[in-house]
Amino acid sequence: MAFLERYGSEGLVQKARRFAETAHQGAFRVSGDPYITHCLAVAETVAEWGLDEPSVAAALLHDVAEDTSHTLADLERVFGAEVKFLVEGLTKLKTIPSNEGEEKAENLRKFIVSFAEDIRVLIIKLADRLHNMKTLAALPPDDRKRIADETIEIYAPLAYRLGMQKLSGELEDLAFPHALPEEFAWLARAIQDPYEERLAYAELLISKIRSLFATHRIEPVALDARAKRHYSLYKKLIRHDMDVTKIYDLVAVRIVMPTVADCYAALGAIHQEWPPLPGRFKDYIARPKPNGYRSLHTTVFCVDHKITEFQIRTLEMHEEAELGIAAHWAYQQARNNPEGTARWEGMRDRKELRWVEQLRNWQNALGNQEEFVQSLKADFFKDRIFVLTPANDVIDLPAGASPVDFAYRIHSDLGASCVGAKVNGKMTPLDAELRSGDIVEIISQRGKKPSEDWLRFVKTAQAKQKIRGAIRNSDRRFKERAESRVISFHVTNEDRPGYLKDVTAIFGNARVNILRLASNTDPRRAFASVLVECAEPSKDAVEKLLVKLKALPGTREVHCTHHDAARPLRRGGGRGDRGIPRRNKK
Ligand code: MN
Q1: Does residue 174 lie in a domain region?
Q2: Hey, which residues are catalytic here?
Q3: Which of 210, 258, 365, 435 keeps 20 to 30 A from 284, CA to CA?
Q4: 403 pLDDT band (50/70/90 cuts)?
């Protein structure tokens, strides 16, 4: 294979190739190809991604310890500790399984421990998975389905989180027809605007953009239009009630410009010619995605009024978007030492890789293997949303997460003590679903305990775990009170900054646990209303609270009502109507 010529005949890579060739001698894949073709393909991908020699050697040897008579100790003797470590991370444990699920969970856990220590293990594994997906057709249908499901649930999201967006999309598209055959067939029929038609449109588009740029003296480095990927379209359709007529941007245009300034110039020219759709312009250059992705995105009414998406970026951003963390890896390696001994240590502090650390801590905290894998699928790898703190820090959460999840993600004390949330400046119930781009501010009460009720709607394993822990630890007296009667304070006040915080401080000082806090600002009037629900304290305490609330600057009126806790609390103003319909997995 051509890529091997890069490496000297006495070096690590060629030595690994010879070793692997001998070890897999006489072994064949299900497709009938000699087994070594798989090892070579994986190694070629790893080399293309710019990884170092030990990684390419490990890619060549990745199935040796699992499938041949050679042991990891043999590999260490011949290739040293580093290559052995990488191969070990890629080798499944051979346990005597009590059941299949448990064995799988244990293998995944071991794999995560390895790549948390050295991210190269994950990158090689993704190259392995890519080749397995490309050659999936040779396997029997049941195996295809299982491997495709795993690819969509675990490996494509992992690639995405490494910033390897192209790989992530490619893995999903390779898996889609096998994981969801009926849905795939349906989608292929539904986007009837046939592929040829989209292709013809793409060509027309390219020539129009070229002449537009010529008049503005804009010279792109590269320009291409492509039909969108199937699986990403399918995910979009799920969000739009499977209504194809709501999806217009079946074609996406990608423009690569020499500099950042050129990117904005190109954007200006496009917007001048074709009106943008409101709310669809995203400046990921000024504010990169948490996985490091940078680009300008806009959607416009384009040629023939067709709705078309544009992505504009520099060459460096483009390479990062294609290769993600592997691109950083290659840069760093080229810069630091030509011998190629860059280490994970240098990568560990990268902001977009903090989740690797988080993942490791988390798998330490959850003892139960099955539970770990379940929450991993349900939480860590699920569709993500990105919300902001008032200080503009980006917080990464699973789709459907609530302000309580947000609070726990910031700090477990903030989670435990939250009583209300302002989303984009408006008071929002704690069980509301957050959306990407929301700015979330948590209102907390000192000394407050988490509510058991939160378990009904929180989405993150972290929040669930902390809430359960707090409930176990809270004393019975607290529980009995919470289960008895509830009192609601209704306050009318002048709308002034800090008023809500003052209210929660009054309850905090009285050591009264707030169960629910809501507030309403009527823009037509000069005053607002605040509702505080809490477990009913003593009559004396209620009197004191009323006096303090009345004395608070800005208070107009206060009264309270009592009711049984058994009566379900009224919930309103939420965004419960935007639940995401999910298709049942078979
Ligand atoms: Mn393999």
Answers
A1: no
A2: 66-67
A3: 210
A4: very high
